[in-house]
Fold these 4 entries.
Entry 1:
Amino acid sequence: MESDRHLGPITWPAWLYVLVFYVLPMTLDLVIYAGDLVTDLRVAHLHYLNDSPSWGFWTVFFVFLPAILCFVVCVYRLFSKHSDEVPYVLKWMAIYIVCVFFFPLYPIFRYLRVLPYALMAMCSDRNREENLLQCKEPSQAKTFRFLEAFLESTPQFILQAIILLKSKESNLILETTQLQAMIFSLLSIAMTVITYEQDAKEEGRALTKHKVLPQEKKRKDPWQSETPEEHEEREVVAEEARVNLLEKVLRFIAWLLLLTGRLFALALFASIFYYYFFVLAAVHMIAVTVYLVLKTPVDLDFKTIIIFIFFSFISLC
């Protein structure tokens, strides 16, 4: 094929590059997130059918906890900017309340909106760079995805593990669904962590501008003859991409194993000591929050304190 070029030590066709670094990660993240959401709601439903409404309530609560946090921050901003406009504030509060129920679906909508651009970039040379730029367009879905991993998937895994460890009666359907939910929660956390690490890493790298395609400059024909300097740059980018792919896979496996051990240890501790666990967790979060408040040189506001509480919870996990 004309589009097949030897980039570094391997042949890296453009369609394969797009498939590996855009289509597959987005599809995998979509499947993991959707599976996590569906299995959690299914577990909550089975808890209610199993005469355990309290477990069902907490399962649903953690599903909507990231959306509730976003709602609190939005309402705070609304009051701080429009405190004198009561009808306006009430109207938007009603809109935000409705959005809370649909907000967990927002990442799915985002994936389904940008995935066709990645597929078009993979299947056709026409407007490939523009399509990939659409895939990399900044979105609040990434922020919500990060919140979902630590405010929903993490406590959900611990909650279902505690229920399994404390349960004295066997229910094969419920237990199987709980294990499925726990597996999707682990995958969701690991995927979010490596994605966040990769994004943070690329922000400070000089090669970030090369990440759209294995070539830097736009031409009428992207695969036409190039200068030796450009070919050398493309070799560096291709080798970088190959190493980054292997690094991502290894880091994903490492985080998966690390999270499994840590979260199971927390769940086992909580199932044995129970109330003491929640007391110690609250003390830990308060201590970390106070430390961050005291060490922060800037003026504090409600949003900053919420962020500190969130990071104190992450440090617990």
Entry 2:
Amino acid sequence: MNILPKKKWHVRTKENIARVRRDEAKAAEEEQRRLDRAITAENERRLEALRAQAAKRDADLEPFALRASSDTTLSTSTGHVNLFQDLEQAERQNFGRGNKEYEEEKRKEQAEYDSKLGIQKAFAEGTKELNKEQEWYARITRPVAKDENKVKSNVPTAPISSTATSIANKNEEIREKHSKKKRKRHRKSSSSESEDSSEMEIEKRNRLAALREERLIRERAEAGDSCPADNTCGGKMSYPRTIWVVRHAEREDNINRKWRSLPGGSELASDNSMLSERGRTQAKECAVRFSKVNLSHVFASPYDRTIETASIIVADKGLLVKPEPGLCEGLYMCEKPPGFWEPEKLKEKFPLVDTDYISVFSKHTLPKEGFGDDACIPRVRTTLNRITEKYDGDIMLVSHGAPIGAIHEIWMGDFKYVGQATVTKFIEIEKGKIRMEFSSDASHLSDKRNLRPWNSLYSLELTTMSHRFVRYDRIVAITNDANK
């Protein structure tokens, strides 16, 4: 039995334990009071420093300050005294200026990055020539010997910069000589190129002159003995008469993007696609429709697809197809110059081409046109006037979507798109007076699907500097039922 805890002198008695705990609590309280006094003293010291700083600022600003009235309050809401007003003012002064050190660091990083990529690097960047700084030796004065001072006392000392300047002048002369030689060689090469271009221009002018001369000869021949028999000299016309307008049949490039890999496709230009098999079937169905229609003249755009469509239609009529570039596609969609063949080359491929026909335009005399399908209207108007004034009888025009839309605009005042291999009928009642019987008729076609009629609206904005064609985003498809 342990009786030691019951002895008065033992340290682990209840009284001793309670006494120790009271002493520890008292010591902790004393330590806390000492710490509070230290914190309070530090706060008071800081407040005194801030008050002294504020008093100094007020003393400096007192001559410029407005006198406050007796009812002035520190704050209308809380009465708070802003002890950090100077810091806030400094922040407001620097607001929006940015961190200059940070910006300079970012600029250097960006410059280093651009330099590694090799972009945005100015010529001679960072050199003294660009910064217009003198070399160190140019700022040194040449020392003068004593004897030289005695002999030439009145001559001022010459700086080393004169020597450097003379060397720089010599280098500049050498560079100027090299640049003169280079300019001379460039003039020679440019003169040779200009000679080539001038030869091409002369050849083009000669070709155009030959075409004009040929046109004049043929027109004089037509105005002679052949005019009364053929009635194509612009004499008295018989009215009313019918003008048929047919759009070419389906193109091969409508269904096959690799059409130039087909036999004969590599010889054609990118804008001169031939007819597809379905297109040839459509052209034959057009021929059946016109089998009992009397025609006096057939005009077609000189592209392969229109010449072939017209040749199939008039195959059994004993007529020749007159290739007319004035009826070709909108020039903004064609190559420059357009990729159709000359009449002699066309006749080798299509025997029914009339090479004696004098066209209104040629490949090299087509006028310049802007962007948009309606840009071809002036050209088509000129072509229609020449054809209708010169050729009598019923006429057929085989053309493309944009020129046929232009024909509708010229005669009916409404730019209208028609489907492929469809027929439009106009009646010329008297000179200059035309009415439309029907438009884009596809009743003769066995397959009326996907004839590709479409409507794209363009508007012409007149500005003080130029004419701009603006195409609207709205594109409306015309259904086959609406075309009937």
Entry 3:
Amino acid sequence: MIYIQKHNSPEVLIELKKKISKGKSFESAIETLKNKNKDVDF
């Protein structure tokens, strides 16, 4: 299970949904977000 810190949730989740809806796998979407958001704890 992946937990996203609450203060980052809206932007991160919207971004995640966009990436997943483009057909990316969940894992690769998470990787992309980790690289973009160094301060987010996944």
Entry 4:
Amino acid sequence: MTPPFFCHTFCSAGAFVPVNVSHFRAQLRKQETCEELASRDAWGRSRSRGNCLHGKNLPSRHRQALLLLGTATAGSSAEVRHGSPKSRTTEAVEFLLAKRASIDAALNDAVQATSVMNARLAEAMRYSLLAGGKRVRPALVLAACRMFGGVDEQAMPTAVAVEMVHTMSLIHDDLPAMDNDDFRRGRPTNHKVYGEEVAILAGDALLSEAFSQIAEKTPATLVPPSRTLEVIRRLGNCVGLHGLAAGQALDLEAEGKPADEISLRMLETIHLYKTAALLRFSITAGAILAGASVDDIDCMESFANKIGLAFQVADDVLDVTATTETLGKTAGKDVAAEKATFPRILGLEESRKYAEDLVKEAKGELAKYGDRASLLLGFADFIIQRAS
């Protein structure tokens, strides 16, 4: 079924603040304290020079959590401006930080179990799967499950699965026949290290292993089999003709077309499949595993579609405004390849406004849930405030 389209009005300008991701990840690996990190700005300079849009420094409690993940905010959130104890964006980032270790451990365990038959293939899988990253998609699975009264144990196998699928899509996207990129997450892409043949197989193996993780590891004592089956069904839809594969095909078809032949509706179609599909799966799967109602799941889908589009707009803007070091992949490639992007069609400033409006609409979808939706609302802001 074709995903729905949206019409939007433009609101006040958004803000994307570039942050040196590699610097702060390096500091995190060294186990520096938040206080040590807060003494420098995103570029490693004295904090007195400021690192926020319009020269305004963020409250330290907000800044510390965000900098650990290499992101920044313009302070557009009312919670930040008015100095509340903790903004929703901070809550979301702290949730990411808190869950990242357990997600990484589960990912490591999953690929350890696949290493028996072919060591090189398993090594290639591990190379990309364990290469770092913010783990936004698996964290969204856990957050949505929590929102509807579930626990991590119910959702962790699906969280692992969604990161496997995401990693597969990155490996395949980077291939010469697709986006032809040499760098991902700050190091050579999979095919540059293991060759195209092994990279393709590593992606294929991760995709098939994702289904096994859900089917074999979801605890039947906590999740009725009917829910697990529904999650598996949705994952199949997410990656195939109604999801990632279709979106990538549409994206390739649009590449090189003159800007006046690409409409906003066309871009929405491409990225509701290519980008929003996996975010939509992450959020709805977490809700399903916890036993959310049909109406709740519909609401989660609508929310995810909007933040999925906003996520892609942010990516397109960052391709124009950020550096290769900041992104961890080659900056400016979309422009060079004449890909169908939001800045190319709307312009840079209108793209930022468009992303802000999408997030505003997405938040409206969750208004009825009140504080229960706090984490997901924070993720919505984080998606357009991130720097990579």
